[in-house]
Input
Amino acid sequence: MNKILGNLILLISAPIFALTTASVNQSWFYPGDQVVLTLSSDAQQVVFPPIDQIAGNPVLYTSDAQNISIINNQRTRKISRSYVFKPSKSFTIPAYTLTTDASQQSTQPIKITLKTPSQAQPGDDYILQIKTDKQEIFLGDEIHLKVIFKSKKTLSTDNQVSIAIPEIKNLLFIKNNKTLRSADENYNIHTLSYKLRADDFGSFSIPSVVANIGHRNNALFSNFSAISQNRKIKKIHSNPLTIQVNPLPDSLRIFGQFNIETKIDKTQAKPGEAVNLVVSVQGKGNFEDIEKFALAINKVTIYSDEPEFTHNQWQQKFALVAEHAFVIPSFTLDYFDKTTQVKKHISTKPINIQIDTATLALEASPQIKSKQANIDGNSSMNNLKYYYLLLGAVVGIFIGALTVFLKNKAPNKNKNLINQIKLARNDKALFDLLLPLNLTELEGMLQQLEANIYKDAQYKIRKKDIINAIKFDRKTH
Output
């Protein structure tokens, strides 16, 4: 009897069936939080199901882990796979089937709830606020946003604070790297400044900004290490905001305050000699949306560079080569004026260019006279000299035109780099190209790229801004 009972107890305690479970790091979340689903099994062999989305939420990345333990001289192994995703509303994680050893086991569904964050109130230990200088703008204008973090003077300063800016489609946050520090009677105050630009019009809801507060000696914010330290992080939420971006009237694309001008290096040129032209737009506004000018003049060969712009100037360069006089037409720009709030039309004046065609006639006339004076003596020799001189003049004109052409078509020393930037297929490739450049103008973009790669941010990176920053730096140095 005792033998039978002992065998029964042994049978019950033996790991006949593998144990498969599904768990989450939290059963509720705030907007912008990441949720981690972990599937685990203590089987010897496990095949996890392919999961690229969970209840409609894309999986951002996965992580595998293995835990081996020895208890009472028995060795057990637990294999798990974690899936990280960022939900936007309450949902239920479905059941998943894992193939373990020679059987299949299913997990249980898990309900996950979205919570509305409560805002900090006056008198709390920490307060987080966001403010804008205006709530309604035209497309092309910008809004100044301030993120204000307050902490009581009586609290420990041995904390690190991470501000999480929400990601909003078609709305770009541009950070000013300087932090303003101040204080009032009860609080130490830190103010971060951002510029907001919209790529489309409409109503944009800015949800609460989140401040994560943790001890300085903990690696709190790196992927899965952050998950294990959630209880040590205090989260503070700001107020939400709504801004309105209106389309420009008359299908305009450019917004700001501008003036336009043209500059040339000469008004008179020899046949085949290049006239260099620069069209400049100065002022303040969305220079990146100004389209390049298409210049066409009858019987004039025109070479054009790609436009370049900085924060206060846009310009495009041309080289014009002709054999006869011509007129450079006026250049026009239509935009919505920021001050007057009406459509504005600005233009340059036409420019007359004279070509000195008398040069060839003066060079050719002595040869003709020489030929006539010696026609009875050595006409064949005079004809040969005349042809040589005429050929020399033509070759000279050709070489001059070719020199101008090659000068204006000379490859930019940055062309290879710029082509690589244009061809970069992802943020990692772009980050690797920009990091060795050590340009101050690119620091903000590098930070955004790094956040996109390693912190699952989704900043929109404009390659046009990067290319123009590189060109501007090379020009000034």
